[in-house]
Write a structure and sequence with these properties.
Elements (H helix, E strand, L loop, with lengths): L1 H18 L3 E2 L3 E6 L9 E3 L4 E3 L11 E7 L4 E7 L3 E5 L3 H4 L2 H9 L7 E3 L3 E2 L7 E6 L5 E11 L2 E11 L6
Antiparallel strand pairs: 1-12, 2-12, 3-4, 5-6, 6-8, 6-9, 7-10, 10-11, 11-12
Length: 170
């Protein structure tokens, strides 16, 4: 009985997603400084766009996304912390992924209460842009791209956009 109810609820959610008028909102661009002391950017709160000072890695208090980049080895990594889910994506998905595909893939992942680290990319500057689907701690879905690395100041250039419903709200 319980399994049948869950299947019916899942089917109802799928129908609602198909009928929803979803689209990605405006593109937000940021330069996140890389901290010399820990080789990570501060956390980016994906719901507000506000960076939060990362005191330690992993951060056990705040929800957000942090990026690691090794200048010495040219390796980049992305971690979601405290409920943020990060999944690697193909670079062409920035323009090509449909809203329902993003929802279906990320809603299938359960939120993590610890650290969820995406796979690291070696020779990162040769594979730009690096793309990631994410689900924020508040449940917002989006896509993020690392578009470059800067040397002065040391930082990571990113852009991201959040999925919104037809009235402009997440």
């Amino acid at each position: 009985m319980m399994a049948q109810q869950q299947m019916e609820q899942a089917a109802a959610r799928a129908r609602a997603m198909q009928n929803a008028k979803l689209s990605f909102g405006p593109v937000m661009e940021r330069l996140l400084p890389i901290r010399d002391d820990i080789a990570w950017t501060d956390l980016l709160d994906l719901d507000t766009g506000v960076p939060i000072r990362l005191l330690n890695f992993p951060d056990q208090t705040h929800a957000g996304l942090a990026i690691n980049y090794s200048w010495e080895y040219n390796i980049a990594g992305v971690s979601g912390m405290n409920g943020v889910v990060v999944e690697s994506a193909n670079a062409d998905q920035w323009d090509g992924i449909t809203d329902l595909q993003a929802l279906a893939r990320l809603r299938a992942n359960s939120p993590s209460h610890g650290v969820l680290t995406g796979p690291s990319t070696e020779q990162a500057d040769k594979f730009l842009p690096l793309s990631y689907l994410f689900k924020s701690a508040a449940g917002n879905i989006g896509i993020l791209q690392i578009t470059g690395f800067t040397k002065n100041p040391r930082g990571v250039q990113i852009r991201y956009k959040l999925l919104q419903n037809g009235n402009g709200k997440n």
